[in-house]
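Please, structure for the following, as tokens.
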Amino acid sequence: MITDIKEITNILFFLIVGSITILSYLQARKTLFAPIRTEVFKLQLKIFEEVLGFFQNKTEIEFIKECDLNLIIRLNTYQMVDSYVDNFFASEVKIDKEHQKEVYKILTRAIVSEKYLRPITEGPEDSATEPPKKVITNPAILLSNWQKYEHPAIAYTEKLADTQAELKRLSISPILPSNIRRLITEFNDLITKNLFLVGESTTEFSQRMPDLAPRTSDLQKFNPSLAANLYNSKRIAFEPKAEEILTAINNYLKIEQLMH
């Protein structure tokens, strides 16, 4: 009987000591990692500040401006009009190449249509020049050729590229919650989709040109905002996704609870 009591006492002793040891370890672990958690939270606040700086209190117009989309659609429209002139009025209108170069110099990058990509060759073929184009004057053939027009390259600015690079940097930050990183990536994808819509809408608008400018004199009255209107009817809005990001940050930091 006494032996049994001793054994039970020993078991209880070791259970109590074990429990105290585990609890002491857990408490020590909390104390040890507390400064690390504090530093991580400080870093999180810093990057949250950057994310909020990009998304907070911005309207749709401001997001469009941030991506240079109005300028991009306007200059891509002008490039399409240059092609239209070259197709229909090459013998009547001479494009000022120097002025053209000056106007388009802000377009430092481009997404080239696969249709217009050419393999690069080496050797003597590099210096070979293309044979001169046959001059076509038949209006029906000119119109038929124009109906096959596809905007060859979506030219865009360094500003848009920088905006996407900054969003990419934020979206891969390991200290941001995964759902917020995902939402930032989705916002960045919206920019890419809207950039591709520049090419799609420019190609579509090109088919209105024969009606809008059947004569060279009509080109002087051409209004590029018509093309912008078509583009904006297709463009995907930025504000809803920005609101999702701000809501996710608010939920994570519980900002509203802290303010009450």
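Residues 12-21, 120-128 have pLDDT under 50 and may be disordered. Residues 120 and 126 are 8 Å apart (CA to CA).
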